Structures are given as structure tokens and as C-alpha cells.
């Protein structure tokens, strides 16, 4: 399928015009970034793995009634998605202390949280995506109170589903980031759906037995074997064959 002109290039994906109105083609790159783009690298095969993992999870979420922008996978690196009006917020769901919450609150990494915690961050690279409250969100009209309620409910539902999905594969879902977008149906009333991607780039995933990191922290912390860890996630989920990394490397 031929894609249209390039509309946007981000850290991990390129968006092109889709074949039909209201659609986009998302191309997953091999670029890896961390610390607000201060650390960069190219990890061969990462884009293929993230495309396949995100396809699998989004398809599962669609099947249980969680609306997403995902339509179908086009090839090893690209998928067809609905065009959305992105809400300028990152929604982070935390189950275990790790990353910034451990540092902010003086928690020991790996400590189970009393309950799942949802945090909002303003999407702005220049400001390094600061954490914001519901008061900020409504005051600056980034989202309505109803939008916030919908994002909270959907995010917790996604957390419940994915926690079980990953646990069945011997993986602990420590935390993850979601993004939402607005779509306008025939009555021109906006509704929120999941957008962006769900992959080891946007989740913290630890082996249940060993606590070995199987996510982007391997890149952030110079632990090595990043794509191998992503391929192991795909293998455990039954997405790719045992030779996942070589399969990923074949799709340039």
C-alpha cells in the first residue's frame, strides 16, 4: 500500500497520510531516546518489535471494548491507525515503585504501591513533560472533567487487563504510559480513544521471577541487550517466533 506525505516525525515513529480520509500510517523507527532526547541510539529491529507488540496489545484491547486508534498492521514496520486530535497529556499508571515516583517520594525501587496510582503529565518536550494536577488540566483547557474521568476509567481498565496478560507470560507490569486522542463521530461529538503505542518503550516490564528489566530501562541504564529483551517479551506473548531478533532485523 502506498503511503501519503509525511505529516510528523517523532522520537520513535513517523506519521504519514493514510489511504483514506481520517487515517494515518504509523512507521516505527529503530531510534531509541531517553532523558528527553539527551541520549540517543539506533537499535536495529526495535521498530519491528514495537510495531508487533503494540499491534497485539491494541487488538486485544479493542476486543474487550477499549477503543483504540489501531486499525490493522500493514507490514513489519507500519500500521494503519485512525487520525485523532491528541490530548496533550501523558497518563501514567503505576503499580510498583520505579523511575521518577521512587525518586520523588523516597521509595525503594520494586516496592509495591498501596494501590495503582494514575498520574498526568503535560506533553511538552521543552518543559520536560512536567507532572500536572486535574486543576491544571481543566484550568488550561487541555481536557474536561468528563475527559479526565474517562481517561482514569479507561487507564485503570487497561491496567487490569494488561497486568493479567503480562502475568500470564511471567512478566510484571510495573508501570506504563498511555496517550489519548479525540475522534469526532457522525454527530460531531468528541470521544476519547487510546492512541500512540503500547510497547516496551512505554511500559516498565520485569521478569516475575528475577526482576530482570525487559523494557526501555535497559537502554536508559546502559544494561545492554535491549532488542533481545523486547524480543523476549514478544516471544512470551506468542507474537514472534523463537528467532524474533533475526526476524526483526530482516525487516529494514
Descriptive terms for the model:
14 strands; D-amino Acid Aminotransferase, Chain A, domain 1; 30% helix; Phosphorylase Kinase, domain 1; 252 residues; 7 helices; alpha+beta; 2 domains
What is the 3D shape? globular
Strand content: 25-35%
**Helical stretch tally:** 7
- Secondary-structure class: alpha+beta
Overall number of domains: 2
Q: What's the rounded overall pLDDT mean? A: 93
- Provide the helix percentage: 25-40%
How many β strands by DSSP? Answer: 14
Q: Give me the Rg, rounded.
A: 18 Å
The CATH class name of the largest domain reads: Alpha Beta
**Biggest sheet layout:** 7 strands, antiparallel
Which helices and strands appear, and what pairs or packs with what?
Layout: E1 6-9, E2 13-17, E3 23-28, E4 31-34, E5 39-42, H1 46-63, E6 70-73, E7 78-82, E8 85-86, E9 89-96, H2 100-105, E10 112-122, E11 131-132, H3 134-139, H4 145-167, E12 171-184, E13 190-195, E14 203-207, H5 217-220, H6 226-236, H7 244-250
Antiparallel strand pairs: 1-2, 2-3, 3-7, 4-5, 6-7, 8-12, 9-10, 9-12, 10-11, 12-13, 12-14
Helix pairs in contact: 1-6, 1-7
Folded structure, characterized:
The relative contact order is 0.16. The longest helix is centred in the middle third of the chain and has 23 residues, at 145-167. This protein has seven helices and 14 strands. A hairpin with a 5-residue loop joins strand 12 and strand 13. It has two domains: 6-84 and 226-250, Phosphorylase Kinase, domain 1 (2-Layer Sandwich), CATH 3.30.200.20; 87-207, ATP-grasp fold, B domain (D-amino Acid Aminotransferase, Chain A, domain 1, 2-Layer Sandwich), CATH 3.30.470.20. Helix 1 packs parallel to helix 6. It is globular, with a radius of gyration of 18 Å. With 252 residues, it is an alpha+beta fold.
Amino acid at each position: 500500500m502506498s503511503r501519503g506525505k509525511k505529516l510528523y516525525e517523532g522520537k520513535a515513529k513517523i506519521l504519514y497520510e493514510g489511504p483514506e480520509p481520517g487515517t494515518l500510517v504509523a512507521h516505527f523507527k529503530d531510534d531509541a531516546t531517553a532523558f528527553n532526547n539527551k541520549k540517543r541510539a539506533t537499535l536495529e529491529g526495535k521498530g519491528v518489535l514495537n510495531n508487533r507488540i503494540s499491534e497485539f496489545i491494541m487488538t486485544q484491547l479493542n476486543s474487550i471494548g477499549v477503543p483504540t486508534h489501531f486499525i490493522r498492521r500493514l507490514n513489519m514496520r507500519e500500521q494503519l491507525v485512525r487520525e485523532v486530535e491528541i490530548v496533550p497529556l501523558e497518563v501514567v499508571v503505576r503499580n510498583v515503585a520505579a523511575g521518577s515516583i521512587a525518586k520523588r517520594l523516597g521509595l525503594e525501587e520494586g516496592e509495591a504501591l498501596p494501590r495503582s496510582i494514575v498520574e498526568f503529565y503535560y506533553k511538552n518536550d521543552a518543559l520536560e513533560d512536567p507532572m500536572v494536577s486535574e486543576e491544571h488540566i481543566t484550568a488550561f483547557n487541555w481536557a474536561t472533567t468528563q475527559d479526565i474521568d474517562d481517561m482514569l476509567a479507561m487507564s485503570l481498565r487497561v491496567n487490569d487487563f494488561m497486568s493479567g496478560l503480562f502475568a500470564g507470560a511471567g512478566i510484571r507490569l510495573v508501570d506504563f504510559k498511555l496517550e489519548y486522542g479525540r475522534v469526532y463521530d457522525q454527530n460531531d461529538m468528541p470521544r476519547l480513544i487510546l492512541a500512540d503505542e503500547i510497547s516496551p518503550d512505554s511500559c516498565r516490564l520485569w521478569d516475575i521471577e528475577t526482576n530482570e528489566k525487559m523494557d526501555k530501562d535497559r537502554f536508559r541504564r546502559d544494561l545492554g541487550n535491549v532488542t533481545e529483551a523486547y524480543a523476549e517479551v514478544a516471544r512470551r506473548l506468542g507474537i514472534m517466533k523463537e528467532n524474533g531478533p533475526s526476524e526483526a532485523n530482516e525487516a529494514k
